[in-house]
Amino acid sequence: MELNNDVYDVLKWIALLVLPALATFYTALAQIWNLPYVSEIPATITAVDALLGALLGVSSANYKPKGTD
Fold first, then answer.
1. What is the mean pLDDT of the chain?
2. Which end of the chain is more exposed for a tag (fewer CB within 10 A), N or C?
3. Could you count the other beta carbons within 10 Å of the beta carbon of residue 42?
4. The pTM is what?
């Protein structure tokens, strides 16, 4: 799987910044405001983030020009 640079950059930004921040934000607010699923929602966000990171790693590995190591 190969992604163009713009898509890769946006997905990388989401994986590195947005999803971890969102999980942390929900965890903090859930404890303050007694929101439901305090552990389930952040765990789901983290799982999606791990999958996205793996897909980006595959895309990055496939991007390297053929014949160079």
1. 91
2. C
3. 20
4. 0.86
